[in-house]
Amino acid sequence: MDRSFMEQAIRLSIENVDANNGGPFGAVIVKNDEIISHGTNHVAEAGDPTAHAEIIAIRAACKKLNTYNLQGCEIYCSCEPCPMCLGAIYWARIDRIWFAATREDAAGYQFDDRFIYEEVSKPYSERKLETRQLMREKALEAFRLWEQSDNKEPY
Amino acid sequence: MDRSFMEQAIRLSIENVDANNGGPFGAVIVKNDEIISHGTNHVAEAGDPTAHAEIIAIRAACKKLNTYNLQGCEIYCSCEPCPMCLGAIYWARIDRIWFAATREDAAGYQFDDRFIYEEVSKPYSERKLETRQLMREKALEAFRLWEQSDNKEPY
């Protein structure tokens, strides 16, 4: 089963290049041994830098299941998820990740996945992307208000 | 100016709790000293785990400017972006990040930002989220096809 799901993710990644939607990336999300959603990279086609295969597949699965919690699901990615997509997979509470190509493979074709992994792992003051902090005290008001809210849902 | 933009991001984060859309997070994107888009956390309201303030603001800015490249823009975040949002900021080529509260502050209110930073920084075999690799060779086909494509755009 695992290989068959990965075959589908890879097939999508290949078709995506032919369709000229964006980069060579595909993903499928599986629940109870059935594919419930899929995605391919649509950055170029949609003009949206967040339109990676995994993000699209996660959003589609959540819409289908009417929840932001994908516990009980697994994701098959034709390439190792980038930090953006890996973060999304954590937030979605997906149970398991399967991937085929690596961030190194992607780097070999000028994709920034490996570079972004390096950057995310550094303290912000050491990153290439300039980052500054200000007004922390004022921002804490929102958290205090959240804590007092009756409607807050943990996620 | 910087403080005024951050004040807006923080104001949005506070209003978002009152509106019951999701967590206490707000972001604005600025180009040429003007706010071109904004976002707040809509995870709960939209049932979408990727609906963080920064992701929403990035998608809105790209739609407005009709590009997936936000070079020349800065983002003001009421809280340090999580790895998902930080990855999106890199992919969008935003020039500079300003943030107020920290991942530690968020962790103090049960948000997973710090945990996800720790996980993303580890080799996949050491993460709490089970991750397995298979079928790398087959997945490389998509990259080779991409390299031969006339239509590929680097991003």
Structure commentary:
2 copies of one chain form a homodimer. With 155 residues, chain A is an alpha+beta fold. Chain A is 45% helix and 19% strand. Chain A is built from 7 helices and 5 strands, in the order H-E-E-H-H-E-H-E-H-H-E-H. Chain A has helices at residues 2-19, 43-46, 53-65, 83-91, 103-107, 113-120, 136-148; strands at residues 26-31, 34-40, 73-79, 96-101, 130-133. In chain A, strands 2-1-3-4 form a 4-stranded mixed sheet, sandwiched between helices. The longest helix of chain A is centred in the N-terminal third of the chain and has 18 residues, at 2-19. Chain A is globular, with a radius of gyration of 18 Å. Chain A starts with a helix and ends in a 7-residue tail after the last helix. The relative contact order of chain A is 0.12. The interface between A and B is large, with 92 and 93 residues. Strand 4 of chain A pairs parallel with strand 5 (130-133) of chain B.
Low-confidence stretches of chain A: none
The portion of residues forming beta strands of chain A comes to: 15-25%
Instruction: Please estimate the helix content of chain A.
Output: 40-55%
Described by strand count, sense and barrel closure, the largest sheet of chain A is: 4 strands, mixed
Number of helices of chain A: 7
Shape of chain A: globular
Oligomer: homodimer
Question: Termini separation of chain A (Å)?
Answer: 30 Å
The count of strands of chain A amounts to 5
Structural class of chain A: alpha+beta
SSE arrangement of chain A, N to C: HEEHHEHEHHEH
Average per-residue pLDDT of chain A, rounded, comes to 96
With strands numbered from the N-terminus, the spatial order across the biggest sheet of chain A is 2-1-3-4
Largest interface: A-B, 92 and 93 residues
Cα Rg of chain A: 18 Å
